[in-house]
Each structure stands twice: as structure tokens, then as C-alpha cells.
Amino acid sequence: MKLASILLAVILLGPAPARREPADLVITGGTVATVDAAFSVYSPGAVAIRAGEIVAVGPAAEIGARYAAREKYDATGKIVLPGLVNTHTHAAMTLLRGLADDLPLDRWLNENIFPAEGKNVSPGFVYDGTLLAAVEMVEGGTTTFADMYYFMSDAARAVDKAGLRALLGETFIDFPVPDHKNLQETLAFMDSFAKRWKGHPRIVPAPAPHAIYTTGKETLLAARDFAQRERLPLLIHVAESAKELSEAREKWGKTPVAYLASIGFFDPPPDGKRLPIVGAHAIYMDAADRELVKQYGVGVSHNPESNMKLASGIADVAAWEKDGLLWGLGTDGPAGSNNDLSMFEAMDFAGKLAKVSTGNPTALPAREIVAAATREGARVLGLGDRTGSLEPGKRADVIAVEVRTAHAQPFDDVYSTLVYSAKTSDVTDVWVDGKRLLANRACRTLDRRAILDAAVKWRKKVRESLSTPAKE
């Protein structure tokens, strides 16, 4: 009798629904641009997240049927995509924003930035400046960035507090700077920095020799050796001005890229397992240089706004793409070489600059630019297995971008909308490792008002220091 009742219930009610898998969060209802290798787009799509990791991406109905979410986020009217990856900046220099503008690189650095840094840069300056940069990046959809500056343990504290992901480069340079005075002190500082932060889930320490015009062979190779010994990435400015190119040819009879290759800076470790090397700017590269960069697997960071503002030149990014170079986008520092950390502006300018410089409106299509700002940027930094695209197994670094706006409607192509229409102010929500850093345009991990107040105080201090003669 009991069995008959069960069979009758099955016939009348149908089979029991399949048990859904648990998820901490399902982002659903928007247009999901995965930026995977196939540039898969789902509309409406969904992203399922568990324990900070993406577990599924696909059509909204399919994901909804498969996962029982503890929390749901309705992304209707928005583009959902990977967090943006800024491959080159100097975050703490937010506190020097606008200090000197409309100058060439050498005068901007030597007459303004270096003196201001010498009088003001301290652990507190770097911490507060990086917090200010973090607010700007979170609000603008940047979830990962590569940085080069001083007192990088303090920058790391700010990054950790913000909840961002970062590759942080401690500067190696051949003159006294605020946190070290010579190579021996630099190496000691780098060692302490690496020991403190190596192995952190979101922070990667790195040695960062500034450039061939400020860093000699001994220092360059000391940075390389440290990176290889500790299995860390390397960051450097390279081929960023016509002056650097001419001086390299005069001094070594080589281009900057060829010189670095000739001294073994790009060489892999003895075990042959390559480590990430990021060359920022790389404006002045000929075909032979591009071949060297490709041969050694060096990632290059294109900084279109900085290159334009300093009149440094135009990188032939269309040739980079054609030759199969590994490259990503960057903003450079916000102290005058760009003035902001907007990756949306970097995408927009990268596309237009490539077209006007080549005379070809089809150069550097929008989807390749979005890839450079996400998936390829992550690969440049050696983080391609963790972030840069929305795929199962990667960390849940996700942003939502509002497209129900007067400047984006009528919305059609995902990639052209992101590159040519969207603004930083359109970013509404940001997650890193599945943790929500921005909720309906409000920072969750940082005290925005206190950080802005601190920035105003720092600017007053900087201005006062520059009007006071240096002590003998």
C-alpha cells in the first residue's frame, strides 16, 4: 500500500527536482562578457561564485537552474566583465597630482617630481597616497594593478586594506631615494619587503629597476638576480623617450631593448622557467626589438595617455598585435604624466591613437583593447591563471558597468560600448576574490572621506616643502 502511494505521487507530481549546487553569490541578468579566448558573451548571462572562485559562467537560466545562491545580484541593464588590469602605475603619486604639468619627461622628473619626492616621500605618504589611488581604482573598476615606487611594504598595507590585487615593485635606482641610499640598502629593503609579502593571496612583491638611464648594469643585474632567486617578477621602464633611445645608441651602440638583452637582463633563471618581466612604455622599439621582446617573453605595458601628455611618442601597438607580442594597458602615474588612473580612458585613447597614427580605422579593434585591459594585462603580470577573464577556476574579480545611460544607449556591441562609450563613473559594483569592494558606487572597504581629507593635508605639506629651501 505504501509503495503504491509513492508510485502514485511520482506519477502525479513528476520526478523530484534535481538538487542545486550551493553558491555564495550569483551575478545574473546582465550581459556577461567573459573575455575568454573565444570572447564568449551571454545575454542575459550569469556568474556563479563560491569561496571567492568562479564556479560557472553561462546563460542566466542555465546557471539559475544549477545553483542555489546565498546571495543574488541583479545585473539587468549592465555589462558584467572581468575586473580591469592596470599594468603600470605609481599609485602613491596621487599625492603629487597636478604638481607640474605640460613639461617634457626629463624636466618633469628632475625639476619637479624628484625634489618633491625627496622632501616628502615617507611610509605615511606612500600608505595614504596608495589608499587614495585605491579609492580611484575601485570606483573605476580596476581590480588588479602593477605599481613601482618606494616604501612598498606600506603600499602593500594599503592594497591589503582596500582588498585589491597588485604586483608591487620596489624601485632600484642609482641615487639616494627616501627608503634607501645605495644598492646594498636597496637589496636589504627588497629582502625585507619580499619576506613580509611573498605568498600573500593578492599581493606579489617585485624588484623594479627604474630605467637604463637611472640604473647601471650592476644594479640591473642585482635586481634580476634577486627576482630569479626569489622567483619574483621584474618591472622596468624601457624605451620610453627619444632621448633614452639616442643616449643608448651613443653609449652602447644599441637600442634600450637590445642593451638589456645584451647584458642578460631578460635571461631566464638557470632552471629555464621564465618569470614575468614587464617593460613599461616601450615606445621606441623597431622590428628587431619586437623580436627580442617576443623571444624572451617580455610583457609590455602600453600607456597611451602618458605617452601623449609628455609628448614622448606613439608606440606602434598595431605592430605589437600583428607580431604577437604580449601586451597590456596602463595609466602610468597620476602625478602629471597622466593625472588619473582611469582604465576606461586608457582603452579609449589606445584605440583612437592606434587608428590615427596608422591611418587605418580598422587598427586595434575594440575587443582586442578590452582583452588588453583584462585577460592580456593579467598575463603580462604573470597572473593569467588567477584573473583577467570570467572562467571557472579563476578568482572572482568582477565588475558591473551600467549601460542604461544617455552616453551608452542604444546599447549594441559590448566591446565598442566599453571602449568608446563607457566611463569610470558607470562602474556600479566591484568584487575581488568574491568580496564586494564597491556596492552601488559606494566603497565598502575604505573610508573615502577620511582618505580625501588626508590627501588635501598632504598637498599643503608638499607645497610648503617646495617653498622652503633645503637644509644643508
Give the tags.
472 residues; alpha/beta; four-stranded mixed sheet; 17 helices
How would you explain this protein's 3D organization?
It is a single chain. It contains 17 helices and 19 strands. Helix 4 runs parallel beside helix 5. The protein has 472 residues and is an alpha/beta fold.
> Which oligomeric state applies?
single chain
What value does the average pLDDT take?
94
The residue fraction in helices comes out at 40-55%
Number of strands: 19
Global shape: globular
| Beta-strand percent range | 15-25%
**SS element count, helices:** 17
Strand order of the largest sheet: 3-2-7-16-17-18-19
Question: Strand pairing plus helix content: what structural class?
Answer: alpha/beta
Distance between the termini: 102 Å
Unreliable spans: none
Q: What Rg is obtained from the alpha carbons, in whole angstroms?
A: 24 Å
**What kind of sheet is the major sheet?**
7 strands, mixed
Any chance you could write out the topology, listing elements then pairs?
Layout: H1 2-13, E1 21-28, E2 31-33, E3 41-42, E4 45-50, E5 53-59, H2 60-66, E6 67-74, E7 78-82, E8 84-89, H3 105-120, H4 123-139, E9 142-149, H5 152-162, E10 165-172, H6 183-197, E11 203-209, H7 217-230, E12 234-238, H8 242-252, H9 256-262, E13 277-281, H10 287-296, E14 299-302, H11 304-309, H12 317-323, E15 327-329, H13 343-358, H14 366-372, H15 375-380, E16 398-402, H16 414-421, E17 427-432, E18 435-439, E19 442-443, H17 448-467
Parallel strand pairs: 1-6, 2-7, 8-9, 9-10, 10-11, 12-13, 13-14, 14-15
Antiparallel strand pairs: 1-4, 2-3, 4-5, 7-16, 16-17, 17-18, 18-19
Helix pairs in contact: 3-17, 4-5, 4-17, 13-16, 14-16
